[in-house]
Prior knowledge:
By secondary structure, this protein is mainly α. Helices cover 57% and strands 9% of the residues. It has helices spanning 2-5, 23-32, 36-40, 46-59, 72-84, 92-106; strands at residues 14-15, 18-19, 33-35, 64-66. The strands form two sheets. Strands 1-2 form a two-stranded antiparallel sheet. Strands 3-4 form a two-stranded parallel ribbon. Strand 1 and strand 2 (18-19) form a beta hairpin.
Amino acid sequence: xxxxxxxxxxVLCLDDHGPAPTPERALAxxxxxxxxxxxxxxxPQRRLFNRTMLALAVEAGLQAAICDPxxxxxxxxxxxxxxxxxxxxxxxxxxxxxxxxxxxxxx
Length: 107
């Protein structure tokens, strides 16, 4: 498959049962969880790439991401993405995140 399509990114999709045996299963796994930094390895502006990838992946149905939990801007991108996509309809998580961020800066 790699030889026929020459992809720019190769993703190994695993779950509790090991590697996905079919392309359909790989797609099902990939839609749920993604390691963001795997895609940006070796690229300049890696953190920006990861933040943008996260926003697009959430829109495509990503349910969980393997990412840097200390990247406050990544978490901000996640909060904004969820709000804009209707995944946080009352904006409660979005507002809580930014209120906490402002409070931490004052301390």
